[in-house]
Amino acid sequence: MVNATQDAGSAAALISSLNTAKSSATSASSASETQDRFLKLLVTQMKNQDPLNPLDNAQVTSQMAQLSTVSGIDKLNSTLQALSNSMSMSQSVSATGMIGHGVLVPGSAINLANGQALGGVELTQPADNLKVTIQDAAGKIVHTMQLGAQSAGVLPFAWDGQTDMGTTAANGSYKFTVEAVLAGAKTDASTLAFGMVNAVTPGAQGATLDVGQLGGFALSAIKQVM
User: What's residue 6's pLDDT?
Assistant: First the structure.
């Protein structure tokens, strides 16, 4: 797990180098074994050929060309794998820059602490009116926010903890839903939860960001860095 950017570049370079070396060695061994098997088969075939009907040059040339093609594909696969490993590590190192920053990720949780709570909405198209409804753990509506007309994209919003009854809600976790309307009809709107990035974990599929109680998220799931 990566918790800071200190020495991240050198560590990434070392890991990438080791992975590339390992991948190259494996590929070279595989290609060598393939060539050895082919040559053994070709020699055996030539030793046991019919003297009255020997192999012609075209057949031998064709088989050599096939071997060359297979070897070329092996080398290409090895190069692509090494490039993928390098990109994954580079992505992980870059993601460490998000540690300590707030982000919006898919989710409907909103946490109220000392009169401050943040959330977000993602709109696929503009809305004539956007409504956010905040509920407590029992599903009771605590507060409704009318955010008016909004453009398509990611929209952060803040809640000061005030309820529809004019009181102050208790600190804790709440849930919220969103409803967007365009030309009198509902349009797509997704809820986004706010959290702090605590750590970054490299992986075969890329970096995973630890966003506290919200869980782990791929870098592609981050909708906005705040």
Answer: 39
Give the contacts of 55 (CB within 8 A, at least 6 positions apart). 45, 46, 49
What is the CA angle 80-216-187, rounded to 5? Answer: 95
Question: Are 112 and 217 part of one and the same domain?
Answer: yes
- pTM of full prediction above 0.90: no
CA 127 to chain centre: 29
* Alpha-carbon gap, residue 4 to 214, rounded angstroms: 20
- Residues 191 and 176: their CA atoms lie apart, in Å, by 8
Query: Domain ends where: 56, 75, 97?
Result: 97
Which of 59, 80, 97 lies at the terminal end of a domain, its last residue? 97
| Residue 143 Cα to chain centre, angstroms | 34
**pLDDT mean over 83-99:** 68
Measured from the Cβ of residue 202, the count of other Cβ atoms closer than 10 Å reads: 20
CA atoms within 13 A on the CB side of 52: 0
DSSP state of 169: P
State pLDDT tens for residues 143-198: 999 999 999 999 999 999 999 999 999 999 999 999 999 999 999 999 999 999 99
Does one domain contain both 165 and 73?
A: no
Q: Residue 204 belongs to what domain range?
A: 102-225
The pair phi, psi for residue 159, each rounded to 5°, is -125, 130
